[in-house]
Amino acid sequence: MESDKLSTLKFADLPLAEELQKGIRDAGFEHCTPIQAATLPLTLQGRDVAGQAQTGTGKTAAFLITVFQRLLEKPCENKPIRAFILAPTRELAIQIHNDAEVLGKYCGFKLALIYGGTGYQSQQQTLRNDVDIIIGTPGRLIDYFKQGLFSLKSVEVTVLDEADRMFDLGFIKEVRFLLRRMPKPDQRVNLMFSATLNYRVTELAYELMNDPEWVKLSTGTTAENIEEMVYYTGNDQKIPLLLGLLRKGQWTRCLVFVNTKHQAEKVADYLGCNGFEGAVLSGDVPQKKRQSLLERFTQGEFPALVATDIAARGLHIPDVSHVVNFDLPQDPEDYVHRVGRTARAGASGTAVSFACENYAFHLTDIEQFIGHKLPSQAVSEDLLVTPRIPPRRKRSKPGTKHPRGSGGRHASKGHKPRSPRNANKP
After folding, report:
1. Contact at 8 Å (CB) between 236 and 359?
2. What is the DSSP letter of 425?
């Protein structure tokens, strides 16, 4: 991380166990980021903290260091789950687990990574063994909890990451279910971190935390080291402009955000047909394939990843040079999360947005939320590339079941749909 993006506080100056200090050094960390410098002196004293900071500023390391230090200070053998970390998405849970393995390499704690979509039996077996720290998503955790595979009665540290996203995804009932089966808030350390802390999250914090300290280092703004720009385009110019920008610039690793799965497939098809291999990351992609795509993208096997907002939160993909809002997000907060996929850990990056006929009216709300106007760029003829048209995707075979609402109950059984009343009258 660039020195001007770090605080003067060094990890070596914090009262951390040597096992933990060694893991921090192995990770290449020397100085704390601002959010780490503001929260760690509090959490290491056992205070509850609700922290808000821009994405990519080190919130994950802040709460992981607190968890490891707390458990090291109070050694305990043959005790059920001691720390519990909740994340809203599988990808974020995986990333937290990866970071925990690095930072806690020498601490000797056993980690369990629990999330849906894959590995049901293997995760069950993991929980049957001694586990110190659980990192996971709410749905699968509740499933295993109700099977009696683990107990929450001895939890000493609780972490809720991206709490606002828990509300957005409808997980808040599951979160309350799990937290209420732990010791009372004043008998554990409670940490809540997010890029945004809205009214609902604040209310949850007062309900489930013990007199938390509020640490807010951002108010919805984007990082200073992100170069932002907007192109005002017609709908038919978006593909030609994206191809033109890719051909003209040195875009080593590009994340292209769209608002729908259908649009993601369309954009990826055009990229592939015009010399830019890419892939689609959306909510219905199987978990194993998601992980494979992210790994291949991280390794530089293809230059572009087209994604819905499933990739806008929590994911740390190194060296993303450009983020493109092919579709402007409908929620201003999602703009901050999307562009935060570049310029991670103090690096620089570029965020390009297309204000098209369908989504341009969201730009005013976005600019009001981030506190500044996006510099506009002209759509010049030399930027527009005439694209090759990709072949049409294969349609479903005849006889494929239609989802409810696309033919109805009767249509799926071979019945003709009922004609509207008076349909043949003029």
Report:
1. no
2. -
